[in-house]
Design brief:
299 residues, mainly beta, 16-stranded antiparallel beta barrel, 4 helices
Length: 299
């Protein structure tokens, strides 16, 4: 654990910079049709081929005006040369809280990869550290689970639970995630347990951490225990600070407890405000050094 103290100290020194809470992401709507997510396209020298695309999007279509029933569909997808690793979602939702179908696991609701916005190729290649076993099996081996979920809020708490079954992947899983929303911080935790279809327990993954929010920036720290995905424990951290009106700088990393699979980097971004942002990042770690250029749009 001593090798994790460096990132922790860096975050504690950066925290006094925080002065104002950032605005949470909102779901947009048009004529009852709702949508939210992230789209990005870019290039990196860490892989052959012309570039990489990334999508983490969800759409909702109301099915009737007499009841709060909608059909939701979306994807978590990476587009690389010669392959399209992804998980596809399609579910019926009642009141936006209760869902049935091929749905997002609760585990993925909090603490995503620190590389998703800055270096999507690393988020793809290291998905096992932060994504649910459900998601990884669908991306790597096309084992798409079906299930049900429920979510809600109570005071400052947001919660979500989900159950899944994948006949092709021969597994079942259950996961839960909690978020405590403070005035200028968020505390998050998630857990996922996996069984075989014969109900033999396989493994339990978990992650917990926090983010301190301020005007156009944040600092965050998380502990990752990706046992179900057969990866070593790791600490993930990131720090983003504004350099100018539309320019920001971010440092990020994932450091494994046994030091065998670290990744870290530094990025600078320019925001077009409602038209997204461009990010240039340099990374290093167990794989090899890399340069990344990414245009991303959140909506």
């Amino acid at each position: 654990m001593q090798r994790f103290l460096g990132p922790s100290v860096a975050l504690s020194l950066a925290a006094p910079l925080a002065t104002q809470a950032a605005e949470p992401e909102q779901t947009s709507s048009l004529g009852g049709f709702s949508y939210h997510g992230t789209l990005s396209i870019g290039t990196t020298d860490m892989k052959p081929g012309p570039g990489i695309g990334f999508a983490d999007v969800t759409f909702g279509v109301p099915l009737t005006s007499r009841a709060p029933l909608t059909f939701e569909f979306g994807t978590y997808l990476f587009s690389l040369d010669g392959k399209r690793p992804h998980e596809t979602y399609a579910a019926f939702a009642w009141d936006g809280r209760y869902k049935l179908g091929a749905l997002r696991p609760a585990y993925d609701a909090v603490l995503p990869s620190v590389f998703e916005d800055t270096a999507p190729f690393l988020a793809y290649s290291r998905a096992e550290y932060t994504r649910a076993y459900n998601t990884v099996e669908a991306m790597r081996r096309t084992a798409v689970p079906w299930g049900l979920s429920a979510e809600g809020s109570a005071g400052g708490f947001d919660w979500i639970v989900s159950l899944h079954d994948a006949s092709k992947g021969d597994f079942r899983s259950a996961s839960a995630a909690l978020t405590w929303n403070g005035d200028s911080y968020r505390l998050m935790a998630a857990v996922e347990s996996v069984w075989t279809s014969e109900n033999d327990h396989v493994a339990t993954s978990s992650k917990f951490g926090g983010t301190y929010l301020f005007d156009r920036g944040e600092v965050g720290l998380a502990y990752l225990h990706p046992e179900a995905n057969e990866r070593p424990d790791a600490v993930a951290w990131h720090m983003r600070v504004p350099l100018a009106d539309r320019i920001g700088m971010e440092a990020m990393g994932e450091f494994t407890e046994d030091a065998t699979d670290d990744a870290y980097g530094l990025a600078v971004d320019y925001s077009f405000r409602e038209f997204g942002k461009v990010t240039i990042a340099a990374t290093d770690g167990a794989l090899h050094p890399g340069l990344h250029a990414t245009y991303s749009l959140k909506f």
